[in-house]
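debug: dumping io for the single-chain case to check the tokenizer round-trip. Nothing else runs in this session.
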Amino acid sequence: MTIEALVLPVAMAIAAGLVGCFAVMRRMALAADALSHVALPGIGVALALHVHPVFGATAMLLFGGLIVWSLEDRSRLATETIIGVIFSAALAVGSMLTGGDELIEALLGGASGTPSLTEIGFGLLTATIVVVFVLRRRHALVVALVSRDIASTMGIDIRRLELLYMEMFALTVALGLRYLGVLLMGSLIIIPAATAKRLSRNLNEMLMIATLLAVAVTLAGTGLASWLNKPSGPLIVILAATLFFLGLFRKERRAP
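debug: decoded output
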């Protein structure tokens, strides 16, 4: 397996590990899977227009994140409820626009061959944006989770921060569609972070452990898939889930 073939999965895993920590703390475990499905109509439209699917998926995910953010404030419904409604509609539309093998690949990932330079460049740029945002705004994200009043007192624009986080979440989903598809990408965002939550005592430890776990299962799953001639997505998720269940036998660490 070439270095070029591993660059994009590693970038995806780093972004997923970091974004997933806040998704877990925001109780967005189910929302992560649902939002992934919003990419499906974008993939269908991109294929119809003979545009690379990743660009259609990214555009639709960013648009979906904007809709969720907008409706969340206006309707006062839970984020999971709004995403669930959008997910159902997106899945229905996407399944009509995408068919056959293209639909299976979009749902489960497993694109063959080395990614093009365009994909690698876009993926690295996207991952860098996500990583920089999370690392620079991690304390503001935590404060907003703990108390919106305290966050406002500190001068944090909560609504803007929530929008930016939702868009970073969407970009992270887009990063992994090639390897895990719309059905499984949410799992890579949530499972390593959930495992890290049990093994860490503070935010920095959680971010580091989640990132390392996401990278480890991605590399191991990709290598195993190449050896077994199987799709990488299911193997990556199985390995991540295995580590999670093993982590349940370890006593949860607490800050002293």
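debug: round-trip ok. The chain has a mean pLDDT of 81.
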